[in-house]
Amino acid sequence: MATGIVGEFLDLKAETDADVLAMQCGDFYEFFADDAELVADELDLTVSQKSSHGSSYPMAGVPLSELTPYVKALVERGYRVAVADQYETDAGDHAREITRVVTPGTLLETSDDDARYLAAVVREGDGGGRGTDDGRADSGCDHGPYGLALADVTTGRFLVTELDDASDLRAELYRFDPAEVLPGPGLRNDDDLLAAVREDLSGSVSVFDAEAFAPGRARHAVSEQFGDEAADSVGIDSEPAIRAAGAVLAYVEETGAGVLASITRLTAYGDGDHVDVDATTQRNLELTETMRGDADGTLFETVDHTVTAAGGRRLREWLTRPRRDRDALERRLDAVEALASAALARDRVREVLGDAADLERLAARTTSGSAGARELLSVRDTLALVPALADAVAETTLADSPVAAVLDGVDRERTSALREELADALAEDPPQTKTQGGLLRKGYDDELDELIERHEAVTEWLDTLAEREKREHGLSHVTVDRNKTDGYYIQVGKSVADRVPEGYREIKTLKNSKRFVTDELEEREREVLRLEEARGELEYELFEALRERVAADAELLQDVGRAIAEIDALASLATHAAGNDWTRPTLTDERRLDVEAGRHPVVERTTDFVPNDLELDAERGFLIVTGPNMSGKSTYMRQAALIQLLAQAGSFVPARAAEVGLVDGIYTRVGALDELAQGRSTFMVEMQELSNILHSATADSLVILDEVGRGTATYDGISIAWAATEYLHNEVRARTLFATHYHELTTLADHLPRVENVHVAVDERDGEVTFLRTVRDGPTNRSYGVHVADLAGVPDPVVSRAAEVLDRLRAEKAIEARGGSRDGADSAGHGSRDGNADGEGGDTKQVVFDLSSGSFAAADERSRPAGAGATGRSSADGSTADGSADGGTATAGVDPETAAVIEELSSVDVAETTPVELLSRVQEWQERLDR
Ligand code: ADP
After folding, report:
1. Over the stretch 745-763, which tens digit does the pLDDT of each residue have?
2. Ligand 1, closest atom to CA 760?
3. What is the CATH number of domain 117-271?
4. Ligand 1 center to residue 746 CA distance, Å?
5. Domain coordinates in residue numbering, the chain
6. Measured between alpha carbons, how far is 659 from 481 in angstroms, rounded to an integer?
7. pLDDT tens-digit profile of 421-477?
8. Which CATH superfamily is domain 586-777 in?
9. Ligand 1 center to residue 629 CA distance, Å?
10. Is 609 near ligand 1, meaning CB less than 6 Å away?
């Protein structure tokens, strides 16, 4: 058992659940034992050994004044750092106690411009007095609702909402990417949630006092912070949401050093406000991060021309949380349009904004008491921009636009009053330190002025002393100076040292000179020290009062900061629209997405882009997109999703014209190579994503499917894709774009009324393929499985034999198309999801697709039942997922070895296989076929 200083450290460490403890020992903060090793590893500190009563412990330390950057670095790496400060006891000893815990979600000193959220998540009924405390009981279930509260202590932003299920929760967490997550008592053992958080987010998970999540305590905390009526007046009646909010507030109070005061406004939002863009879709569409994890090449990076950090945060939020409120979107579009068409005014606005400091953040720094004089100067200078900004937006075309209205929320009188007050108070070039004077202007405070005058008078006397001594006593080589040991002294060269006047007392002899003091000098010295101290103290006191005065106006700073952020984000969208020939979308409540000459917002930046039209509406709601690999299918579909998303972010869109029906959600699934690296089977992931879409999408959603069923055997895959198409078409009725390499699916267009085919055209001449990048109506004219093998140079005999065998295989297979179920009777228990039947699909069609002829026949017209497997039911219900073509009939007429070769051939991913590998596989296939 360690005693002494190390023992004290270990005792304190045991008191806290922080990961690391920094303990003050005199002029240093020290880390001992494991903590020393940890900080040494993370921060390159040198470890020494501290012996304590016979044992030796690793020790690392940093000087008192240098702790902050170290703490910041540790916290940014996800550690929670406790700081213990030293104080003097009544008995005159030194004792230490933990004064604060700095955590990723409550770190104020961040150099990163992005928002930095602390989140609490609560599941209804968990540990809140009802239900069980053990999350495991329910683990794996999707049971909501969930309460989510998010606080950004750096700006004072505070958001609360309720979410229906775990997938909504994940999407929301992914969107805000909190630095720290506090799971409620019932969720701590929810492995699924925690795994999801770890996988999706860069933040860390912290366990916090379960009591803070209790409904009574939480409600009280919310009332204390925002007022009794606040929760009601913003319409939060969800218990889990209140519990999450209360827990966040309690946590900030407990750990954050005084930042709670910056949280002044409670913002609640509900399900209906935003477009549902799940985490997978945010990733697939590369909104703020590419699939590879880069920031370059994202939608955000492309349209971001903001000039302030706060504007960047705002724009990012608009893109990741598109809205459904048409009026709000029209207002934003009006503003973008006005700014886009007024180039000069826009430049002026951006020029003014360019000088703005991050007021949202400065507000938090004043309330927490960490802002210094230079920061208050930035507040002053930024407030001073408001009139210039108001002038800029009052110009011609902008004056009647919502851009001008953004500033209406700012109290201009209070703004200029505060600015003047700061201008009157602050010195122009204050020092970094707060305690050595020089912070405030003359004329700000009478008492201070008097001190300053007296101080200046003495300094003046001291400064001119040497001259006087020379003159009066005829001494050459005289200087007056001051140092730590001697204080003020008169230094006289040795040659004249014996001629000094009476009253000079020698205090030191140096090589070439002597130092003297006089009574008067000592007197003045005492006075100067007294005055310096008094001035420093008074200035600091006055400065603190001034800062408190500014902190009391934190809400005003936040208002101005918000207006700056908003105008900056609007100007950014306008800048991009004007520079790239984007157009204002026409928003409509009709179910349609009609794009003329649309482009992909990111790809068009680096490519000679071929624009394409898109037409999705009530009659034509489901497009099957075919075309060879690399022809542009994904690009076309993502472009549709991005145009939809941009329109609902209030942005112009890359198209000649676009009519955009508002959606409640955008869902995508695309081939996910990354997942494979994470050890999750691609097929499992694919099916989870598909499942989520089929559950979540509605008739008002946009669904993008880039290949479904690729991760399993062909017939499994076709069956699933087929059934999913029917379900989306008949039941969900979402606007859908579905790219597939299963040529078979294209025949669905003949039988499901709203399904149409489009294909990306290629030009083939003499075996040379030219990508035209043009999307045309109708299906591709061939199946690309075998075609791709052909393109890849697989020898002709194999390709033609494969085509032959495929035909034979198809002859034995039959798939039924089930169209337009409206009564729910045969929709596998899902029931009809959309009441407004469109009339054309009243009957269930029982049609069989004969794959050998490539055509359909009514079920009763079938000339022969094609074996046991072809019972006229989609094989989705009965097939196995073991990768084999399912049961007997598939190989009827073909020996099993040939069937296996065909299967392997058609599932080869040419893009992922090296030519050498392909050659050797082809050789192997030939050998097997010969046998
Ligand atoms: P697919 O999904 O059919 O395999 P992609 O959509 O990935 O094909 O497109 C392949 C490449 O073609 C992309 O990298 C893109 O640069 C280019 N491309 C796609 N569409 C267009 C277009 N409309 N104009 C110009 N280039 C395009």
Report:
1. 888 898 899 999 999 988 8
2. 3
3. 3.30.420.110
4. 21
5. 4-102, 117-271, 283-430+553-579, 586-777, 785-930
6. 79
7. 999 999 888 877 666 667 888 889 999 999 989 988 998 999 998 898 888 888 878
8. P-loop containing nucleotide triphosphate hydrolases (3.40.50.300)
9. 9
10. yes
